[in-house]
Specification:
Structural class: alpha/beta
Number of strands: 14
Number of helices: 10
Shape: elongated
Strand content: 15-25%
């Protein structure tokens, strides 16, 4: 098999599951000003050390996290094993800068993978190629390093090869010590720090040897800014198995240069931060998140929804409430998400379509004046049901629709009603069984 065929085989489950949880947790949860605090505030290693000394998430309970994810209808999760600050939530033999050396004295990643597997969820690990703690990662003039403008580092020599040995060693640990890993989520490349700068071919060969079925994102050569060569018909060896647009849903989904859809996953925050931010209460509503999930699936994409636990290791109450509301909708309408993708029909004005073989799902966001019309389906529909309860919806022939010969029409009231409320103001899903 070639690279694209191998990618297609590996990502089959991914394109069926469609909905996952991202978890950003680390030392930055204590200052609670976002995961980029060291860089944004140009904090020295010594200034940041106070959070390592204090770290002790006394209420860390990944079993409760896994239950919340499962009840929300999520099928997989990705958690930060190491973020840009270099702090490891796993017991690495390559560093002292890890959770087992804090007051917590716990391998948080081991607990996470065990808890999520118990709930039947697939597990992913996020690993930052960037490391602001390691002495051999470039400091001065690096675009993101906290010490990028500190002249005392101007003439410091860094042994980047030694850093790469460290990075590869830690990835080997993650691929060896924690059982079967379903997703490796690398983050990220920029400027000349891309591709073979990370010895990406060597890294991928090692990962594939240890975890042959793992799917890998595209950020060994790309970032949230661009998708890299995965969008070409001849992707690089380290182009990844899926693209990872960040804080945006691509207007037309993501396709390669031949117009063929490629696997992709939009990673989206619940509020405006990845890591916990105590003052950020700008949470997206469950209604908005559900509709964005539908939009992703309608474009052959996945949604990875982030939560930033607080310093105690707790999901914010706001996040839990949103997950519960999403879960209620998913319990009734999940068939229109799982195993579904883009329909050949054009996007309707009232919402979106998703489709699984001959089951077409109309996601209706907006009520209509008069009956709802579906173009291109005349004499092509076997039956129509409201997905949430399987109740029958009758196709009607209203007196005022004679000019629209290629349409079918229905409504949610009696045939003569001109206006009516939608059964679900979040997203009313109508299942159409096609002939």
């Amino acid at each position: 098999m070639n690279l694209v065929e191998e990618r297609t085989k590996r990502t089959q489950w991914f394109l069926k599951d469609r909905f996952g949880m991202f978890i950003h947790f680390g030392l930055y949860s204590i200052p609670a000003r976002g995961e980029w605090i060291r860089s944004n505030e140009k904090m020295s290693k010594e200034d940041y050390q106070i959070y390592f000394d204090e770290f002790n998430p006394i209420n860390y309970d990944p079993k409760s996290w896994a239950r919340a994810a499962k009840e929300a209808g999520m099928k997989y999760a990705v958690m930060t094993a190491k973020h840009h600050d270099g702090f490891c939530l796993f017991d690495s033999k390559f560093t002292e800068y890890k959770s087992t050396n804090t007051k917590a004295k716990r391998d948080l990643i081991r607990e996470y993978v065990e808890a999520f597997r118990e709930e039947g969820l697939k597990v992913g690990l996020y690993y930052s190629t960037i490391d602001w703690y390691h002495a051999d990662f470039p400091h001065y003039n690096d675009r993101h390093h906290p010490m990028r403008e500190n002249v005392s580092y101007k003439n410091v020599q860094h042994d980047f090869q030694r850093y790469l040995e460290y990075m590869h060693g830690q990835v080997r640990e993650l691929c060896t010590n924690y059982g079967k890993i379903d997703i490796l989520w690398f983050d990220f490349s920029y400027d000349d720090m891309s591709g073979e700068k990370w010895k990406a071919t060597e890294l991928i060969n090692m990962v594939r040897t240890l975890q042959p079925d793992v799917i890998i994102d595209n950020r060994l050569e790309a970032s949230g800014e661009n998708a890299g060569s995965i969008r070409t018909s001849n992707p690089s060896f380290f182009a990844g198995d899926f693209a990872s647009p960040e804080q945006i849903i691509p207007p037309e989904g993501i396709v390669n240069e031949n117009g063929n859809s490629i696997p992709w996953e939009a990673c989206i925050t619940m509020n405006n931060h990845w890591g916990y931010c105590s003052t950020d209460k700008n949470y997206k509503s469950a209604k908005m998140i559900i509709r964005k999930l539908v939009e992703c699936v309608s474009k052959n994409g996945n949604l990875l929804l982030n939560i930033g636990p607080n310093a105690k290791g707790e999901f914010p109450v706001e996040s839990l409430n949103i997950l519960k509301e999403i879960g209620i909708w998913m319990k009734n309408n999940g068939e229109s998400i799982y195993n579904c993708g883009k329909s050949e029909l054009p996007k309707p004005e009232w919402g979106y379509y998703t489709q699984n073989k001959n089951n077409l799902y109309a996601h209706i966001f907006e009520p209509s004046i008069g009956p709802i019309g579906l173009s291109g389906l005349k004499d092509k529909v076997e039956k129509v049901r409201l997905l949430s309860d399987s109740s029958e919806i009758r196709i009607i022939n209203p007196w005022n629709t004679l000019d629209f010969e290629d349409y079918i029409f229905f409504n949610f009231g009696s045939p003569e009603q001109l206006t009516y409320p939608l059964p679900d103001n979040i997203d009313t899903v109508v299942e159409l069984e096609l002939m």
